Amino acid sequence: MATFKFELVSPERMLFAGDVVSVIVPSVEGEMTVLAGHAPLVATLKAGIVFVQTTGSNGKEFFVNGGLIEINASTTTILAEQGRFLEDVNAAVLDQEILTAETKLAATQVEDEKRRLHEALVQLREFKHVFEGRKAA
Amino acid sequence: MPSLKDLRNRIASVKATQKITKAMQMVAAAKLRRAQAAAEAARPYAERMETVLANLAAGVSGASAPRLIAGTGADKVHLLVVCTAERGLCGAFNSSIARLARDHAQALKAQGKTVKIICVGKKGYDILRRQFEKDIIELIDLRAFKQVGFVNAEGIANNILSRFGAGEFDVATLFFSKFKSVISQIPTAQRIIPAEIPAGTKVSEAVYDYEPDESEILETLLPRNLTVQVLRAILENAASEQGARMSAMDSATRNAGEMIKKQTQLYNRSRQAMITKELIEIISGAEAL
Is B187:B249 a contact under the CB 8 Å cutoff? Predict the structure, then answer.
């Protein structure tokens, strides 16, 4: 299968770099799958799971919270505001993130920033719901 | 000629100093490893961010460009953000950053521009205060944080952004020390507002699709970029500081060792001279009888 170069970086470190078959990302306008030869695109991300398919059968999952994906002819890059391996994510981590988002929201006065943070918070809560459903299943 | 007791005291005090500098060197070496790892781990993100931004900025032009890229159109008031360490005893680290900032500020003033300074770190403030007391508008103290991270950078970036929003300055420059190796740290000035698009970045020809839309993405990306640049400056600075301290303390330890050697030799010589003198006195006294 055709592969393409993919990188997932968070401010703290590089989470993934290598050739992949497909990547599923949680864009703000819905989930999308990126395959080799995708048209150039820049999209912002919401809280969710990035699924990276490295070979035909193997995959890796990551948790991202905000950030953006840039796709061009040579590489695909996700710049996550926060990123972790999915194995490291649990309810406590998510609760902590939600709490941080809430305090940040309470602290800002700027209207635009408030709207943005509020959206992020809603996305995070939504994701927590999905995450718990997934675990139960 | 100092007495034997003086010499003994002197040797003891140099030995005590040597112990301190040696301990500081070892602590700095341990901290350096962590700081260096953090600085290096943060590099890919900052680099990718730069490329993405360069690609995006190439697409926007003219009056529609956001102010963080295009600037305010004026070039009157300059903001210097000077990042230094909170502690001294690290060689020329603090003074070389402060010197770069000072030269910059003087050049700007000579051109008749207004200079405002924000100091991140107490040491830079102490140095710059002598000359630019009136121009320093804020001192950001990071001493309370053991490990500076994203939160601190975000705080500083938001501070800068709100000042920019209020129209307090036109151009912002960040001063920090780039970590090259343990023995080499390069004081650097980086323009952050309007965002500096690094020359030579390969700009892809492709026309991007945007989701949701271009201006909205740039609006979130640009403040984000500022935070990342500040974070990078802080992390590079932390690594540089430990590196500079390590090599400064290393040479201090070596100097102390040399001094101990010299003083011990002097002590032994004068002790021997004293004994010889006493012997001569005794013998010549015996002969006289």
Answer: no
- Cβ separation B208–A41 shorter than 8 A: yes
Distance from CA of B150 to the nearest CA of A (A): 8
Tokens 């398919």: give the residue.
Answer: A53
Residue B16 to residue B28: CA distance in whole angstroms:
19
Length of chain A: 137
Q: Inter-chain contact B206–A40, Cβ cutoff 8 Å? A: yes
For the record, the structure tokens of B198 come out as 């690094």
C-alpha span between A101 and A105 (Å, rounded) = 6
Active site residues of B: 90
Consecutive 10-residue runs of chain A (137 residues): their mean pLDDT?
88 87 90 90 88 82 88 88 83 82 78 77 83 78
Q: Are A68 and B204 within 8 A, CB to CB? A: no
CB atoms within 10 A of CB A137: 5
d(C-alpha B117, C-alpha B172), whole Å:
10
| CA geometry: angle B169, B93, B141, nearest 5 deg | 50
ipTM of the complex: 0.78
DSSP state string for B76-102 = -EEEEEEE--SS--STTHHHHHHHHHH
**Closest partner residue to A79 among B48, B211, B216, by Cβ?**
B48
Contact B192, B234 (CB under 8 A): no
**Looking up tokens 């970036």, which residue turns up?**
B157
Dihedral of alpha carbons B58, B62, B63, B67, sign? positive
* Domain A4-86 falls under CATH 3.40.50.620: no
A114 touches A108 (CB < 8 A):
yes
Residue carrying the six token digits 């309470």 = A106
Chain B: residue nearest A12 by CA? B42
Tell me: the pLDDT tens digits for B50-66? 877 877 777 665 556 77
Give the whole-angstrom CA distance, residue B228 versus residue B280: 77
User: How far is it, in rounded angstroms, from Cα A71 to Cα B225?
Assistant: 18
